[in-house]
Specification:
It is built from 9 helices and 10 strands. The chain has about 250 residues and is an alpha/beta fold. It is globular. The protein binds adenosine-5'-triphosphate. The site of adenosine-5'-triphosphate has 11 residues, from strand 2 and helix 1. Keywords: ATP-binding, Cell membrane, Membrane, Nucleotide-binding, Phosphonate transport, Translocase, Transport. It holds the Pfam family ABC_tran. This is Phosphate/phosphonate ABC transporter ATPase.
Length: about 250
């Protein structure tokens, strides 16, 4: 891991109509870290990932990405080189061939003209085909995306990220819709690729088991606050039990 600070968050706060979703969170994430974001439903995981991805503004606080205020990155090419997002629902265009979904990773770099032309004659085909081979989808480039299984579609989304090559990858529940065997495969592959590419990964997860198996650091959120932020090996069963404990009123 390098000592370069990829994300520096200071006092991040987000309110929704009077309700606090994030309450003055502060943390630093270095290049190469594999961070799992865990915590009960409603703890603020998605809100935090959306704020880092600049998909939703914060109410207050400071976010720096690779040493620059997040707001200094113009949306589009510059931001796409820094941050890539992968989601549970994959965000793929079902009726298109796999190769076009993979090459969508180049959209912001290419601009509209080259992107549209690429739909007729795929540009930088080799790049897409190599990415597909790396995620185990050799020979699937010209299949229609919607005919692939859920696990294969998540691999297409990963190949798209490899073509985009962002420095930081944010994944919001990337395996929630997959069965356990597929989920394990996808997380193994995602963390392997991210490590090889020296990228930084922040993933929200409902499964503590996967967080422990594949991630080097676990940040636990509860009621919009950091409940703990520890290297994985320091996370005890007692801490986890406390994190997910139901309040007495929740049982009613
Ligand atoms: N658009 C919104 N409008 C109002 N409240 C919202 C909105 N988005 C999130 N919230 C609230 O903010 C809090 C944090 O939500 P968030 O989705 O970030 O939690 P989460 O940890 O990702 O939950 P889950 O594990 O269920 O996905 C919750 O109380 C939620 O109800």
């Amino acid at each position: 891991m390098s000592s370069k600070h990829m994300i520096e968050a200071k006092n991040l706060t987000k309110h929704f109509e009077g309700k606090i979703a994030l309450s003055s969170l502060s943390f630093t994430i270095k290049q190469g870290e594999l961070v799992a974001l865990i915590g009960p439903s409603g703890a603020g995981k998605t809100t935090l990932l959306n704020a880092i991805a600049r998909m939703a503004p914060l109410s207050s606080g400071d976010l720096h990405l690779a040493g620059q205020p997040l707001s200094a990155y113009k949306k589009g090419k510059l931001l796409a080189k820094k941050i890539g997002v992968i989601r549970q629902q994959f965000d793929l265009i079902g009726p298109l061939a796999v190769i076009h979904n993979v090459l969508a990773g180049k959209l912001s770099e290419w601009g509209i003209g080259k992107s549209l032309f690429s739909l007729l004659v795929p540009q930088e085909k080799e790049l897409a085909i190599k990415a597909l081979e790396r995620v185990g989808l050799h020979g699937k480039a010209f299949e229609i995306t919607s005919t692939l299984s859920g696990g294969e579609q998540q691999r297409v989304a990963m190949a798209r990220l490899m073509v985009q090559k962002p420095e930081v990858i944010l994944a919001d529940e990337p395996v929630a819709s997959l069965d356990p065997a597929r989920a394990d495969d996808i997380l193994a592959m995602l963390t392997k690729i991210v490590t090889e590419e020296k990228q930084t990964l922040i993933t929200s997860l409902h499964s503590v088991e996967y967080a422990r198996k594949y991630f080097t650091r676990i940040i636990a959120l509860k009621n919009g606050e950091i409940f703990f932020d520890l290297p994985t090996e320091k996370v005890t069963d007692d801490l986890l039990a406390e994190l997910y404990q139901l309040k007495s009123g929740d049982m009613a």
